[in-house]
Specification:
Radius of gyration of chain A: 16 Å
CATH architecture of chain A: Alpha-Beta Complex
Structural class of chain A: alpha+beta
Number of strands of chain B: 5
Order of helices and strands of chain B: EHEHHEEE
Number of helices of chain A: 4
Strand order of the largest sheet of chain B: 2-1-5-3-4
Oligomer: heterodimer
Largest sheet of chain A: 5 strands, antiparallel
Shape of chain A: globular
CATH topology of chain B: Ubiquitin-like (UB roll)
CATH superfamily of chain B: Beta-grasp domain
Number of domains of chain A: 1
Strand content of chain B: 15-25%
Number of domains of chain B: 1
């Protein structure tokens, strides 16, 4: 199975992981990204997430297919939220299921590393003092995404 | 051609979308940017830092030097920050 969603609504993580484990998998691995309480030491009121409708879904579907080609997965799920999210809320769920843990764990790392640099989402921070700022891309994220090129299939 | 702007670029330009007929001399996103920047404010400032500009043609990431070809949609935006 392959499940790719972009939504405003909260993610039912338990239900998603249970569904992913239905097809005879022996392992389900997942990454959950949350809104932090602070950014650069300043308390956050919320994150606003914007995306490029249409392109986002294409990019995430391609990413899920790439993971399924590279590893023997029984399933793969990417759900990314958009809109205004407050600290502690889930932003993204990336998960993979396989017969044994190694493939599921590696695929999950691949999915989130590549999602960060390869899908058209943008975050703006709303601070508790009323100011806002666009989040800047991090060189570390580019490096993490690139390591999957070097590791090879 | 449909031109889309996202995130800080949308805010700088003051709109998220516009229709544009590229001049015949514009064959790449970089040419189109020069054409837009020549309009003056707010485009000139929005497109002043090309190192922090990314683009997509028909919803596929591309470089500033990718041929526009027959693309019907182009999007300009800052580096992505999802996840």
């Amino acid at each position: 199975m392959r499940r790719v969603l972009v939504q405003q609504a909260p993610i039912d993580i338990t239900a998603e992981l249970e569904a992913l484990g239905q097809n005879g998998a022996g392992a389900v691995a997942s990454f959950t990204g949350l809104v932090r309480a602070t950014a650069n030491g300043h308390p956050l009121a919320a994150l606003r997430l914007e995306h490029y409708p249409g392109m986002t879904e294409r990019a995430l579907t391609r990413l899920a297919k790439a993971a399924q080609t590279r590893w023997d997965l029984s399933g793969c799920t990417i759900i990314h939220r958009i809109g205004r999210l407050t600290p502690g809320e889930t932003i993204v769920l990336a998960a993979a299921a396989s017969r044994h843990r190694a493939a599921a764990l590696a695929a999950t790392g691949f999915l989130i590393d590549r999602l960060k640099t390869g899908a058209p989402f943008w975050k703006a921070e709303e601070f508790t003092d009323g100011t806002t700022a666009w989040v800047r891309a991090r060189a570390e994220d580019e490096a993490a995404a690139a390591t999957w090129d070097e590791i090879g299939g | 051609m449909r031109v889309l702007y996202f995130a800080s670029l949308r805010e700088a330009i003051g709109q998220g979308e516009e229709e544009l007929t590229p001049p015949p001399s514009a064959t790449t996103p970089r040419d189109l940017i020069a054409h837009l920047a020549a309009r003056g404010a707010p485009y000139s400032a929005a497109f002043s830092d090309l190192a922090c500009l990314r683009c997509a043609l028909d919803q596929e990431f591309c470089t500033l030097d990718t041929p526009l070809g027959a693309a019907r949609e182009i999007a300009f935006f800052p580096p992505v920050t999802g996840g």
